[in-house]
Amino acid sequence: MERKKILLIEDEVKLARFVELELRYEGYDVAVCHDGRDGLKQATEENFDMLLLDLMLPGLNGIEICRRVRKFSGIPIIMLTAKDEVMDKVAGLDSGADDYLTKPFAIEELLARMRVAFKHATAGNPNKMILEVQGLQIDTDKRLVTVDDQVVDLTKKEYELLLYLVQNKNIVLSREQILNEVWGYSYIGETNVVDVYIRYLRSKIDEAFDRKYIHTIRGVGYYVKDE
Ligand code: CA
């Protein structure tokens, strides 16, 4: 069986190291981030089987990370909260976490919760999301895009851009909104990058299939139309 890949986002370095070693010992692959923003970036760029997420983090807090990961993935997420943050557990679960664990916890407790979360995930995955707009489907679990059941080969950024447009279908999104959401606040570069990628997408999903999914409102922005 393939090793399961876990992403641990935790800024307490000692605790992170301890959990990492224990999980490796149990046969998991583990990646560790100590900063919220780096963690979200890694969760976006790589495929993991589970997220272990601290609540209070530098950069971006756990609830926000959870909320954003849920936009494109149904993977199991377990929140790790300090004792005095227990009040936040409701917010954590509201944001889409599957479970939470209060620190300090016994490692056996974490392992048990992980097994339960994996079991739920494989039993029909209630968080699995397929978005659809008139023949265009996005399977966010597999990060797979199809038009009339034909697979469309997209780069990572093209996929993220399309996902953002489809999640907000029929809403006109400005270049700035798209830039912030898809490229991130820290993006420094050509501002016409959005137009360039819209062009790539159009050639792959509009022109290739003789459709018109992506619409332009001149001087305002772009949207995906669903009738
Ligand atoms: Ca923390």
Order of helices and strands: EHEHEHEHEHEEEEHEHHEE
The amount of beta strand, in percent, is 15-25%
Number of E strands: 12
Instruction: List the strand order in the largest sheet.
Output: 2-1-3-4-5
> What is the residue-mean pLDDT, rounded to a whole number?
88
Radius of gyration over alpha carbons? Answer: 19 Å
DSSP helical segment count: 8
Pick out the low-confidence regions: none
Hetero compounds: calcium ion
Gap from first CA to last CA: 44 Å
Shape label: elongated
Give the helix level as a range of percent: 25-40%
Largest sheet: 5 strands, parallel
Secondary-structure class: alpha/beta
Describe this structure in words.
- By secondary structure, the chain is of the alpha/beta class.
- It has 8 helices and 12 strands.
- The protein has a 5-stranded parallel sheet with strand order 2-1-3-4-5, with helices on both faces. Strands 6-7-8-9 form a 4-stranded antiparallel sheet, with helices on one face. A 3-stranded antiparallel sheet has the order 10-12-11.
- Strand 11 (214-217) and strand 12 (221-224) form a beta hairpin.
- The chain is elongated and about 55 Å long.
Task: Please specify the SSE layout and strand pairing.
Elements (H helix, E strand, L loop, with lengths): L4 E5 L3 H13 L3 E5 L2 H10 L4 E5 L7 H8 L7 E6 L6 H6 L4 E5 L3 H16 L7 E4 L2 E4 L4 E4 L2 E3 L3 H12 L5 E2 H9 L9 H15 L6 E4 L3 E4 L3
Parallel strand pairs: 1-2, 1-3, 3-4, 4-5
Antiparallel strand pairs: 6-7, 7-8, 8-9, 10-12, 11-12
Bound molecules: calcium ion.
